Amino acid sequence: MAISLPTPSPLLSHAASTEADYDCWEKARVDPDVDPEEFDKVRTVFGYGSLIFRPGFPFKRSYPASVRGFLRRFWQRSCDHRGTPEAPGRVLALLRCSDVTDVDPSDRSDVVTGMAYEVEMEDWPAVLEALDIRERHGYTRTLAELHSSEGLPLGRQGVVYCAHQPQQSAAYTGPEPVEATAQVIRTAKGPSGPNEEYLFSLLDAMESNGLPADPYLTSLSAAVREKGSRPRGL
C-alpha cells in the first residue's frame, strides 16, 4: 500500500506567512521529553480522527484501542486540509485533560477510543515522515499508553499526534460551544474536501469499526445537520 498524502494547499507558496500565523508548520513538532529512539520501538500509530477513516499508510494490523487522560474535540483550526488561511475549518485535537480545565465535568470523559495501526519495520520511517507532514498544523508527535476499547491495558505504547500546550498555539480555538463549532464545519472547505465530510466520515468509520459512540461527536453532528447539512452516508 502506497503512502498517500493530501494535496498540499495551493495557497502555501504565496500565503506561507498566513498559514504560519495559525501555527501551520512544515512538519509536526516532536515531543522533546520523548527519546527519539522510543518512536522506532513502538511502530504503532493511534488514530482518533481522520486516521480512523483514512489512515493513508501501510499497516499489517489494525484494531480498536483507547488512550486515557485525553479529550477529543474539534478545537483545532485547519487551513491546510479542511479550510484555508482565509477561512480555517475545524479538525479534531487530542488534548490532555490537564491542559483543559474550563470544561464542564459532566462533559469530560478522559478516555478516547480510536484505532491502533501496527506498521512493519521497513515501512516505519516513511510512515512517520508522512504523518509528520500530514499533522503539521499545530500537532506534536508523542507517545501514549494504549488500552483496549474496553479500557484494559495493552502493555504497549502508540504514537499519537496531540495538541501539546494548546494555549500557546494559534491553531487552538480554545473551548467553544458545539453550535459555534458546527457553524464553521457546515461552511468550511479545504484541499482535503468539505469540513462536514470529515465529521460524517469519522462517525461512519467509528460505527463500522465497532467503536463506542462519542457523546460530544454525536451532539456536534446533530448540530451540523440541524441547519440543513448533507445527510449522513457519503
UniProtKB/TrEMBL annotation:
GO molecular function, one term: glutathione specific gamma-glutamylcyclotransferase activity
Record's signal peptide: none
Highest taxon of source: Eukaryota
Keywords assigned: Lyase
Gene Ontology terms: cellular component: cytoplasm
Keyword Lyase: yes
GO BP terms, alphabetized: glutathione catabolic process
Keyword Iron: no
InterPro entries linked: ChaC (IPR006840), GGCT-like (IPR013024), GGCT-like_sf (IPR036568)
EC code(s) of this entry: 4.3.2.7
A Pfam family this chain is assigned to: ChaC
Enzyme class, UniProt record, top EC level: lyase
CDD domains: GGCT_like (cd06661)
Record-given protein name: glutathione-specific gamma-glutamylcyclotransferase
Organism of this sequence: Cladocopium goreaui
